[in-house]
Amino acid sequence: MKKWTDMQRNARYETYSSQTLATLQAQQANSLWHLHYHLQPKSGLMNDPNGFVYANNRWHLAYQNFPYGAVHGLKSWHEISSDDLQHWQDDGVGLQPHAPYSTQGVYSGSAIAVGERCFLMYTGNVFTESGDRISTQLGAWVDADGTIDELATPLISAPPTGYTQHFRDPQILHQNGRYYAILGAQRQDLRGTILIYSAKQPEGPWQFEGPLDFGYESLGYMIECPNLAFVDGKVALIFCPQGLEQSLLEYGNIHPNVYLLADAVDWDHHKLIRPGKLHNLDFGFDGYAAQVANAGTQGARLISWLGLPDTTYPSDGEDWQGCLSLVRELHLQAGHLRQTPVVDALVGAVNSETHDKIDVASVLHFEWPADVEETLYLGNSQEGLELHLSPQALTIKRIETSGVTATRHATLLPEAHQADLYLDASCFELYLDEGTVVLSGRIFPSGDWYLSRPTQNQVQVTSRAMATIF
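^ that's the sequence the OP posted. Answer follows.
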């Protein structure tokens, strides 16, 4: 795989030829691991979803993109939109890096509908000659026709006293006639927290209200991608704590994406009312940087990056990396967040017998009784997914061609269960009991996959084809 220097990572886009970009796009489009119904980059690296909003009767979304390789290089936003959150239109490059405030990349941010326009609030990144980071919170208006008008001066030019330049990923909200922004941050003593700012208008001036009291003074050494979701009369705080102690929450990835539920937000005192305990948002292998769209009567929707920071993947060898999860509708059930994939227009006809070769673009539905003890295997002799079902837990083992294996667990109640496993060329998402537990990740098959299970099995399996969106 290519080794990138800092100079190559930060080279301006205009230094690349149109032929180079066309070659990279063709390589991704022709990849064995090209996805069928999950969002993926046209070329290069895709990571955090951004600017997710419902405006003018249409859903809008962007994602961070470095188009020229599978590396966290100079980031821009790539824009897409949809009527149904399943079929997407490519709207081209959106925010682009430039001096003086985003010279080394346009980083994560959010959007809010204001009349017929949208307002973007996002982080610009600059590195000094000495290697220091300067993070600035920027703003832009987007007209109904997609025209972007960036504000000339920052919304927030520096972190408050007592915090480092790890200060990013604003979510902008409108509550009680005032605009609020929550940001991921790091204290000077290297503890992660979430900060609140407010303003009368999106353009500001923005004033610092203080750290958000969400039941923890701090978590890990940094918090990224904080989002508030308003779900069924409650509030879900969704975020990514880096360096979180396992004693506070058990997780298997390098960094987790977590959530907690609260009754409401007390904006006057910048605190959550009766916040609950931490939960994993996704129990799988690769979910991170989830972003929420709060769409009023439409409810809350969520989409995640299926990838992790500081991680390499086999597709890196083809100069592309990353994809996004299915969009998930959020509800509450028994004190937990329930995530249901939006797929009604994608699910097709029933496939042939499921002991035959597995369609790489399909969904498998499983049902099993409370007392089952059974193992299913999807894959071949080189790689696959092993699902072990027991009365107490579901265990999924990912076996890769390289020989690397990893295991994740989800605790179950003593009752009958069902699950839907969405397979798509190089990613999967497993929704247990209508989304009360989600496990997702990347896997890169080198050959055909089959379903293997015991002769005397108690698990009912059906399979349906999934439509392609590309």
